[in-house]
Design goal:
The chain is of the alpha+beta class. It is built from nine helices and ten strands.
């Protein structure tokens, strides 16, 4: 019972994620660990920008795909710490509660603010980039019918961040007329409107907090050059029903025994399972699952 006599309903991670679409975990990492992970990430980002400005001057990305690519790290110890975090029980525990079973690593991405320009993100579901509208409706309905979850994005804020907006409870239903207007109407021309989306919640994270996201729900980011963003994201998929990343998100270098041998036995076993399953998938020569790009 709450202090005012009302009943407080405690939901499991799985219930909150499938119904509301996101979970915030305060203080996932703190103290010296937070400072170290942020320092490593900033140095990796600096190397990325150095390479980018030579190869593609003027580009202004908001994400660095395949963040565990060894070429971004000054030394192998830095990469080891990032890989250990991605396989840490603090991350895998909540994820596997959501999946009601074992998880499989999928990819890593680093989100940052742009350097040269600012914009509001576009309201979207990740499904709209994969399915046409009627197929998207069917996919969303299928999640409602079987409580299915095909993936989790686990984002860790390395600095204070208010760069994410979400429509709670939008995961297992299709858009209201107002939501449709801002997300899809007129060829998505309203999707970057600064205001207007009903029931939108801005998520405020302190450095070290984590948010677990169901990307089928309606959401958007904010990308302002004057608002620092440093967010480390690991994506996971259910081990018993995996989806696989687009090849551009897959890096072979860290898969070598050279890198895995430096990990704890627990983390090495976790990534080796991913390598085994992904190699079997590649050998099957199947076309990529349409839902692979959702998470």
């Amino acid at each position: 019972m709450a202090g005012d006599g009302s009943t407080v309903i405690q939901k499991s991670y799985q219930e909150q994620f499938t119904q509301e679409g996101y979970i915030v975990i305060p203080k996932l990492i703190t103290g010296d660990e937070l400072l170290r992970i942020r320092d490593i990430s900033n140095r990796a980002l600096a190397k990325f920008y150095e390479d980018l400005d030579i190869q593609n001057p003027g580009r202004d990305p908001i994400r660095l795909d395949n963040f565990m690519n060894p070429k971004w790290y000054d030394n192998e110890e830095d990469l080891r710490l990032i890989m250990e975090l991605g396989a840490d029980p603090r991350c895998l525990g909540p994820v596997e509660q959501i999946f009601r079973g074992r998880s499989l690593y999928k990819t890593s991405i680093f989100w940052m603010n742009p350097r040269y320009s600012s914009m509001e993100g576009n309201w979207h579901r990740d499904t709209q980039f994969v399915y046409k509208e009627e197929a998207e409706k069917e996919y969303v309905a299928s999640l409602r019918e079987n409580d299915g979850v095909r993936g989790v994005q686990f984002q860790i804020a390395l600095v204070d961040s208010s760069d994410f907006e979400y429509i709670p409870f939008s995961v297992q239903r299709f858009d209201s007329p107002e939501e449709y207007y801002y997300r899809l109407a007129d060829h998505c021309s309203h999707s970057r409107s600064a205001e207007g989306m009903p029931n939108a919640v801005r998520i405020h994270l302190k450095a070290g907090d984590a948010i677990l996201l169901n990307q089928v729900g309606i959401h958007r980011g904010r990308y302002h050059m004057d608002k620092l963003r440093r967010t480390l994201m690991f994506s996971y998929t259910p081990a018993n029903n995996p989806t696989f990343s687009h090849p551009k998100h897959v890096n072979d270098q860290w898969k070598s025994e050279h890198y895995l041998d430096q990990l704890s036995s627990r983390a090495a076993a976790y990534y080796k399972e991913y390598i085994k399953v992904y190699q079997e998938y590649e050998a099957s020569q199947q076309k990529p699952d349409a839902s692979a790009n959702i998470y």
